[in-house]
Amino acid sequence: MANVGIRLLSMKHVFFLGRLSLNLNVRTYVSALFVSGKRASESFAILSPYLDFDERFSDMDKLKNELKLRALDVDAESVKNSWDLYKSVISNRDALEQKRIDTASQIKGLNTSNAESVDNEEITRLKTVGKVLREDLKVVREILWELEDSVIPKILKLPNVLHKDTPAFDPVILYSYGNLNPGENSSCSSSHIDIGRRLGLLEYSSPMNYYLHNEAALFELAVLRLAADEFVHDNTMRVTGLDFARSIIVEATGLDHESPEDSFILQDNEEVEKHSVNRMHLIGGASLPSFLAMHTKQLINPKYFPLRYFASGRQYVPFNSRLREAGMFTVCQSSVAEVFAMVKDSKSSEYAEEFERILDSAKLLYNSLCNHYRIVVRPARDLRPWESLRVSFELWSPYSNDYIEVGHLSLCGEYLSKRLLISCQTHYGRTFPSIISGTILSVPRLLGCLLEESPEEFVVPDKVREYMPA
Q1: Cα angle: 280, vertex 259, 3; to 5 degrees
Q2: Where is this site: Important for serine binding (predicted)?
C-alpha cells in the first residue's frame, strides 16, 4: 500500500501542507475506468465513475466475510485505510482551495476600497498567504494524483455486494424439471465430441477451433429463433449489439482489462495507439459488455423503466487455462441468447418481479428443449465480480457425470450503473437503475448435453425442429 504522510498545520490564517514521505509501490496495472489527474494529459477520460464506498466500508465484518465467501485474497483493512487516506487528502485540498478563494476575495475587497483606507501591509500579507496556499495546493494535488493511481484501481476491483439469497457454500436447487433417466445417470464411455464426429455433426480441434455440420448447424440457428420468439414480447426489444467494446466497459464489470484470460484484446488496431489504456476488445454482440455500451453515461427518463432487451448471436470468452478442456463446454466462441433488463430501484418489488418474469420465460424455453434440467442458485465462490446473485440452468452430462451450466441469469444491482454513469433523474435527484442480465442459453453447451443424452442418434427437440427447414 502507498505510504503517504500528510501534515496540515494552521498558523493564524495560513494553512501549510507538508509532505512527510511518499513511497508508492511500483505497479503495472493502469485503470481505464478511472483516469487520474496525473494521466489526464495522456488519456481522455470518457467518464468518472460514481465512487461511494463509505457505505461498503461501514460494515467491515460483512465485507471481509463476503470476500472470504468469494474466495478472494483481498486485504479489506488495507483497502479501507487507503480509501480513508484518499478522502482525507481531498478534504485537505478542499479546505486549502476554499482558503485560497477567501484570501483572493479579501485582496479584491481591499483593492476596490477607498484609497485612504487601504492597508498596504495587509494586502502584502494576504498576497504572501495566497502564494503559500497555491504552493500547498500544488503539493496536495501531486499527492492526490499518486493516491488516485494506487488507491482507486484497488477499490474498483472490489466485487458486488452479495444478495441475501446467495448461498454461502453449497448450491441450492431452486427448480427441477422432469426426471433423470437411470441410463443418463450412469457414466457414458463416449464424449459429445466423439459422438458428434461419428454422427457427422461436429468437427472439433480446440476451444478456439470447431465447426458444426448438417443438422447441428441447422439446430444452432433454429434454437436461437425459438429463444427469440419466447423472449421478444411484452415490450422486450430485440437488438443487435456491438461485437467490440472498449477497455472501460470491460473493467466496469470488474474484470482485468489487461488480462488475456478475461477478454480478447485487439493488438493491431489502427484506431487505438499501441500503448493506449483504453483498447478494443472482442466480446460479441450477445454479451453483457455489448449491452452496457448502449447506455454508458446516459440519463434515462424514469417513465421508460423497466427497459428490456434481447440479443442472439456470438459471445467471445477466452479459455481459462486453470480449467480442464471439456469440448463444447469450454469453447471460446459461442452462439448464445442474452437478456438484459434495467429497473429504476433495486429496493422496489419491480426488481424481484422482473427477475421472476425472465426466469419464467427461461423455464418455458427449457421445457421445450429438455427432458430434464434444473435451476440452481450458485454459491458466492462461483459468482463473477459484477454479480450479487446467479441462478444457473443446468443439464446432465453422462460423460462428465455431472451437471453442466447451459445458461444463467444474474442480479447485478447498481454495481454496473454507478461505474458507467447509467442514471435516471427523479424528484429526489439522480439515481442509478438496477440491472438484471444473463446468458439464458449457450448453444454449444446445450448441443453437447443433447448429444451425450442420445449417443446413437441426434434427437432434435420437436419445438426446435419447427424452426428448421423441412
Answers
A1: 110
A2: 439
